[in-house]
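Subject: Sanity check before I submit

Could someone independently write out the structure tokens for this chain? I want to compare against mine line by line before I put it in a report. The sequence has 604 residues.
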Amino acid sequence: MSNERWPPITEATIRDLARSSSYDRGQAYYDRSAVGEMVRRGETVRADVEGSQYQPYTVTIEFDDAGVARTGCTCPYDHGGICKHRVAVLLICLRDPERVTDSSPVSELLEGASRERLEELLVELSEDRPGIAEWIELRLTPTDAAASDTTVSVNIDSIRKRAKHALPKPGQRGHKDAYAEAERMASELDELIDQAQQALDAGDGEIAVEILEAVSDVLATNRWSGLLPYDVTELYETLGTLGETFAEAMLVVELSESEREQWEQRLTKWDEEIRRFTGRPTLAVAADAAREGWDDDLLQRALDGSLTDGELDVDEPEFVAGLTTVRLFALERQGRTDEYLNLARAAGKTQNYTEMLAREGEIQASVDCATENLSTPRSLLDIAKTLRDTDNPMAALDVAEHGLTVDGLRKDRLAEWLRDRAASLGEEDLALRAAIVAFEESPSPSTYQAVEELAGDEWESVRSELLESLREQTPASGHAAEVFLKEGLYDDAVEVAERSGRSRVVKTVVEEVREHRPQWVIRTCKSNAEPIVEQGKHDSYETAVRWLRYAGEAAREADELDEWREYVETMRDEHYRKYKLRPMLDDLLEAFQSPVDSEVSSDG
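---
Independent answer below. Compare away.
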């Protein structure tokens, strides 16, 4: 595989995707050649990686024109960032692209195959893997036929059966697979909601309502919330999409006054049940849609363009799309662009208005509206992504570049996005400028390395500016300390730890400077261990002993091990009544025997 056809990725990109510990372990996997055969089909690379289990883990990496689009791995890792297996595969893509074998995408392989041959392959696959048969059955039964381009027919009993199948199985609570169970539930419900959205695409609101009714009723009348963890983002997103789609269906289907009242009551009741898990409204906006529809006179004036900017009062809820947003969804799906733009302008939905301009090809108007009216990095990033998705990359860079001048949340994300896209388009000066902003907003070894890779001959002068900005940072971050440690600036790292006051940051610095600044480590570790011991926090004794261990390692470096042992022995004797602490300190002392003690012990 030639490098010319390989998407642009860098060491910094990979570090951004992973926690530092995962990156280091992925580097180790790369070094010991734990990655097996790698195959690229289209924009997707798959590889098997040796792990802790007998069977290797399968890694999937999807690329786009600017780098890594999505990643996946069959390992159970779920601690933030990508796992070590994915890091190892990405490192090969970056450093040894010739190891990746090019193969045709599956769609091309199947292109010339006869129906009989495809059937043989499916039967053979289902015999080898029993779960495939159930998968095929569940996906074939719902759709009976497509009567026309605008009519969708589904088997509602099968929809209900699949919704029940999506629910978590009893006995999963507290199990290590509970997170996987929640993700599976989200994935299977997404497929059902997607069928309702297809019905809406076909203009069939009644079928969409029937599908969503079956799914919502299953969720509201079965006990499942207590079986799952409450921090699985995917499931919250799925339930939010369910509410939005149901609300849109209520706006599309024709209902009498009595039917609207009945639907409002049912949706409100279901929402109360589902809220036991979410703690937030899910179907409430659908109940609002059933009650209000499109009948409001002021809304009609907004749709026909009679209202000025922001004249329509809108009160949107947190966490989920409100009724005005759902109305915009419905108008867009129905191709009612003028009414969409009128409503977005009247409701003060500037971002929606600007994105629609981009989708309609009004590129300069979209850029002007974004740069003149949007004032948050997040909204400007969204517009930039929309412009890029509509094949207007230079306009996307213009909007994102403007985002560098505004302050707010997600500015680091905008800067990182602009950095990578500008680099892929050859806009090196802009990429470097964005990389510097990304570092200043979110300093870390990875954002630091990204600047180094882009700076070239300017690196030494840029480096001095970056380090100076770190020294002025308040409050100090752990990542800032990691950058100083990477550069061997130990006094700066120590100052960051002292300014931070956070144990995690202190621990990071302590672990790296025991050899270089042993006196500071000894003093700092004692001050962290003593309050725990003095206050008798028996649940935290292990933490106290860990601090003392760090101090012991530093004392060994400083040739002060006898003084450290005397300190620990005194602590043990003064707190001899703390029965959980004493054996821990005995074990610690045994692990740090002084040279004299070691000689006596070896002599017997």
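---
OP: Matches mine. For the report I'm noting this point. Confidence is low (pLDDT under 50) at residues 142-150, 172-176, 598-604.
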